[in-house]
Target: GldG family protein
Amino acid sequence: MKKGFFEKLKELTGAKKVRMGGYSAAACVLAAAIGVAVVIAADSLPTKYTRIDMSGKNLYNISTETENIVKGLDKQVDIYFIAQSANKDEIIDQMLQRYASISGNINYTVQDPAKNPNFASQYTDEAVEENSVIVVCGEKSRYVAYSDIYKTETDYSTYSQTTEFDGENCITSAISYVSSDDNDRLYLLSGHGEAELDTTFADMLADRNAEHEELTLVNAESVPDDADCVIINEPQSDLSEKDVELLENYRAKGGNIIVVTGYTGQDMTNLNKLLSGYGCSVEKDLLLEGSMSNCIQGMNYYIVPNIEQHEITEPLINENYFILTPMSIAVNETEGSSASVTPILQTSSEAYIKTNSESAQTLEKTDADPQGTYNIGVVSTLTTDGKESKLLLVGSSGFLTQEMNAAVSGGNGDLFLNAVSWMTGREEGIAIHAKSLSNERLSVPESSAGVISFITIFLIPAVVIAIGVYVLVKRRKR
Model:
């Protein structure tokens, strides 16, 4: 019996449905397979690519400096987060996961103190706070307290409290400490009225696992062999000939020196003798800045120098930091040395040296005051019999103080730490800043406030009403 047209069409349609159903099933299977593959691939990526920091302050993102240190680990480092699941600080947890995602040598574990109350006691005698961290490598360990990760300080000028998240600095410092075979040792020269190292800078060194102590050369036969660097911080009188001899011997062995010396009104003949071997010297008279763009307003003896390119200044330039050098003196480059000298801090071309500063009646420039671009800071490298010695010289009193450092958001401290790192060859010496938890307020200039008010109060509502009227009229015409 012959099939009719509609019966044939029905058969064809049915066959097409079967084929289309098969295609759909295959497409679903393929999509599922792709989805599984994407999930597996994403799971293998570092957490910085798969988890976005939604804090708005990059609290658990970590810096390039930390990444370089962690990637360079050649030992297994265990990080234990002491926290119960219900009370776990998510910011610290996320940050520690990022450490573990960078290197296979980082093993991250959460330890519940309720389930294992004696765990922390094998590493520290302190009363362990919840949400604290213990970092272990071999026989060495460091306990990082929760109160060190979140630092609260009081600003007595405003009687307000500020809280900062210092997690990255604490954890990176702990990793560097436990994974290092030895720590840097710095000596602070004394006996010439030198300033003590400010607590802020001493803490910076401790965070970078560098030890420091005073050094008196009066009865010494040499600078200690374990000295990675000698710091001469604001001497008020000149060095002795013996001091210079011992420091020159130390330099010849590859020893490093940091000199911070500002205006004192004293002749520093022997200090300049030491510096001449590095190809530099310091002036006696006060250096003043003639450009208001390079000093604190109204105080031309508080100079904000231009930062020149060098390994230790590059991070500051990249992050747009400033340096503050109060009570400065000019640093000269001298001839007769094989050292390589690089200026890193310079005045504007409007700066001038106040001739006979001790007896000067005014700080304003006179015809007797030489004007020009002067160095305030230089670095120098001197090689003797194949041994390299490095120098940082900054011509400023108060450069290594908390007040000056805070005025430029840590710029002075960064330069100091970067110099120590450059001298000792330790990348972990690079400064890592704490992150403020304070809410930032939106400041609107007065000139813009009227425009913003007009737009939000009048213009936007007027546009909305006009659109509504237009739509209503158009509908009524239909």
